[in-house]
Design goal:
Elements lengths: L13 H15 L13 H13 L15 H39 L4 H19 L5 H22 L4 H15 L7 H16 L3 H28 L3 H8 L14 H4 L1 H5 L2 H14 L5 H20 L10 H18 L5 H24 L8 H15 L5 H8 L5 H20 L8 H13 L5 E5 L4 H6 L2 E2 L15 H12 L3 E4 L1 H9 L6 H13 E5 L2 E4 L1
Parallel strand pairs: 1-2, 1-3
Antiparallel strand pairs: 3-5, 4-5
Helix pairs in contact: 1-3, 2-3, 3-4, 3-5, 4-14, 4-18, 5-6, 5-7, 5-14, 6-8, 7-8, 7-13, 12-13, 12-14, 12-15, 13-14, 14-15, 15-16, 15-17
Length: 545
């Protein structure tokens, strides 16, 4: 039994293959790794740990962070293929496959070429302008989500289980799940939708095979990792740093649905969803309700996943971006038809969303640091007030009948934004200031590649700029508080490794040394060790005596 009529798969001409490859290249040129520079915060840490794994280190023993192992496995593979630029190359490949898969998925839904190009460009332009660091778990999730969504749409339109798309869906889900389970919301929405749909239509065999394929892929990806951790005796450490630490209060500010919903608003998805719901309810496509269900479930699951930490970081918003592709594409496709009330609602929603996002960007700029909810509300509310006057364009759009011209103008605008983002990438990821550049130059000049380095703070970028290995495995940031003394364990590592240089914020060093008697014993021991065995040779740079 099939739930869909027989169909032909759209052909992907060479022009589309080349176009998506070039778009992926343009997008990924914002990633500093392509210039052998350092992406922001976590992304640099992941790259460094991937390098250490590739060089023979043992994960969760010789280098530790509170993430699942797949992000480090991907980076280790990339580093083996071509150093830090190899990591960039793998991400470009994933981005290209994601764009190519999305193009084919939208073509299977019989959405127009203009719609496909416009929706992909809009998502990439917003992503690159605001959120893209390169090599973040959210970045990899975005690329894999676009590939996985193609697989789910293919299964939906086929109306039955098929092995190849099921394996694509399962493997992309498994990679993300073993990277960071919270990032798997899109897969959860689609798996639940297809499973229930096939059960309702007595497709028990397809539903069961879909379930087994997802579990099988989780086991296929996870089994070698578990065997590795068991072999090196770090299975308990893997469980703790990948999962348990999030449930014992060592990380996060508690669960907050308001925090989880931030990305829903800041990406503009909340403004597209009402019109998207009406469009799909008004259509009699056999795929309308399943696509609507999967998208809305994905939004709900993402809201819950983003609520867990209680932190408001911009890169968490990315998990909503991949869910915005189908709503945006459906609205663009509907708005090019007759100018009835629903078409006006669609174009009005798209225009208002674009104006809202533009007002946020131009009026307030953007911060990659943690946001407060109060600041988020202020930016969103004020920007919406500034954006509302743009709605006057909606009746003009209908009166002037520029529906055929508007998509091409928007496409040109999005391309200009992406080119500007790529240009910005040539300046990103470099040493922060002349003092930082001096530290990097001295480390490179006065140490050997085999020497170790310790950066006391949240600047893992120095390990990339100098291509030196960290002298301690405790690389996670200061907002993680495990039930042991991290400073004490770090000092033990430094005594064993004896790094040639230690880098830190000089003002903090001065402050801690001045108030040393008031500090905990492990902190006192650390700074006494620093003063006894290292001499200051530059601002924030200490060399071993």
């Amino acid at each position: 039994m099939r739930l869909a009529p027989p169909r032909h798969y759209p052909f992907l001409p060479p022009s589309v293959i080349i176009l998506t490859a070039l778009l992926a290249l343009l997008f990924c040129l914002r990633n500093p790794l392509v210039y052998a520079m350092a992406p922001g915060f976590d992304a640099s840490l992941f790259a460094v740990m991937g390098k250490m794994w590739a060089d023979g280190g043992v994960l969760y023993r010789d280098m530790i962070d509170i993430k699942g192992p797949m992000i480090f496995a991907i980076d280790a593979l990339g580093y083996l293929l071509g150093g830090f630029r190899g990591i960039w190359g793998l991400e470009w490949l994933a981005c290209w496959l994601g764009l190519l898969a999305s193009w084919h998925a939208l073509a299977q839904l019989e959405l127009s070429t203009r719609t496909r190009l416009g929706s992909l460009l809009a998502i990439l332009a917003l992503y690159g302008t605001r959120y893209y660091y390169g090599n973040m778990t959210e970045d990899w999730t975005f690329h894999l989500a676009l590939i996985g969504q193609w697989a789910f749409i293919t299964l939906l339109l086929d109306g039955r289980f098929r092995l190849f798309p099921a394996l694509v869906a399962g493997l992309t889900f498994a990679i993300v799940a073993w990277m960071r389970m919270n990032n798997g919301a899109l897969w959860g929405g689609w798996y639940l939708t297809l499973f229930v749909l096939w059960i309702i239509h007595n497709q028990w065999r397809s539903a069961l095979l879909l379930l087994l394929s997802s579990l099988g892929c989780l086991a296929l990806v996870g089994a070698p990792l578990l065997a590795y951790f068991r072999h090196y005796g770090v299975l308990d450490e893997f469980v703790y740093y990948s999962f348990s630490i999030f449930f014992e209060g060592s990380y996060g500010n508690g669960t907050s649905l308001a925090v989880g919903a931030v990305g829903l608003f800041r990406t503009g998805l909340v403004m597209l969803l009402p019109a998207f719901v009406l469009v799909l309810l008004a259509r009699n496509w056999h795929w309308s309700l399943p696509v609507l269900s999967a998208t809305l479930l994905g939004v709900v699951f993402t809201l819950i996943a983003n609520s867990v930490s209680g932190h408001v970081f911009d890169h968490y918003d990315v998990l909503y971006l991949q869910l915005g592709l189908l709503p945006l594409a459906c609205l663009l496709d509907r708005s090019k038809e007759q100018g009835d009330a629903l078409a006006l609602l669609c174009v009005g929603s798209v225009i208002l969303t674009a104006a809202w996002l533009l007002a946020q960007q131009l009026g307030f700029g953007w911060s990659t640091k943690e946001w407060s909810l109060e600041r988020v509300r202020e930016v969103l509310g004020t920007s919406l007030l500034w954006a509302l006057p743009v709605l006057v364009l909606v009746p003009l759009w209908r009166a002037w009948d520029v529906r055929s011209l508007t998509p091409w103008l928007a496409t040109l605008a999005m391309l200009i934004v992406m080119i500007d983002n790529a240009w910005d990438g040539t300046e990103m990821g470099r040493p922060f200031n002349p003092a930082a550049q001096l530290r990097v130059d001295r480390v490179l000049a006065e140490s050997q590649p085999g020497d170790t380095l310790w950066v006391d703070g949240i600047w893992p970028q120095y390990y990339l700029w100098t291509d030196r290995t960290p002298a301690s495995p405790y690389l996670f940031f200061a907002n993680v508080n495990p039930p042991y003394d991290v400073r004490e364990r770090t000092l033990e590592s430094l005594k064993r490794q004896q790094p040639k240089f230690i880098i830190g914020k000089q003002a903090r060093f001065n402050e801690m040394i001045a108030s040393l008697q008031k500090q905990p014993p492990s902190t006192q021991a650390f700074y006494l060790y620093l003063l006894d065995h290292y001499e200051q040779v530059a601002d924030g740079l200490y060399r071993r005596r």
